[in-house]
Write a structure and sequence with these properties.
The chain has a single domain, classed as OB fold (Dihydrolipoamide Acetyltransferase, E2P) (Beta Barrel). The relative contact order is 0.27. A six-stranded antiparallel sheet has the order 1-2-3-9-8-5. The chain starts with 7 loop residues before the first strand and ends with a helix. The protein is an alpha+beta fold.
Length: 131
């Protein structure tokens, strides 16, 4: 499981982790949904993700997660280019319920320095979900 205090969060319940081995300039960001989002959705049965090469703009819809209760859009917490999707999550959407901070990441995006500016730290995100 990922150290949740090192992640950044969007108000739309996505998390972002930068690859610590990346240098300056372009970096690799892994994006997933939070446990709060997974719990709110309930049993997730379908996930739609963008194609590799898709250009994302922060705040735009990049996919959706469908549960037995509802359909929720996924919002890009950063701008950049999709370089990898997690096919395992597409094949087994329920993994988002069991491991939202582990193996059930959604996409990897190539981002520029400063991509995480304006996102929440863990304490601010927890406060946001309790509001």
């Amino acid at each position: 499981m990922t150290d949740l205090t090192t992640l950044k969060y969007s108000e739309e319940h996505e998390w972002v982790a930068l690859d610590p081995s990346a240098g300056s300039g372009t970096q690799l960001a892994t994006i997933g949904i939070t446990d709060f989002a997974a719990d709110a959705l309930g049993d997730i049965v379908f996930v739609e993700l963008p194609e590799v090469g898709t250009e994302l703009t922060r705040g735009d819809v990049f996919g959706e997660a469908e549960s037995t209760k509802s359909v929720s859009e996924l919002y890009a917490p950063v701008s950049g280019t999709v370089v990898e999707i997690n096919d395992a999550v597409v094949d087994d959407p329920a993994s988002l319920n069991s491991a939202p901070f582990g193996d059930a990441w959604l996409i990897k995006v190539e981002v520029a320095d400063g991509a995480l500016d304006g996102l929440l730290d863990r304490d601010a995100y927890v406060a946001h979900t309790e509001a």
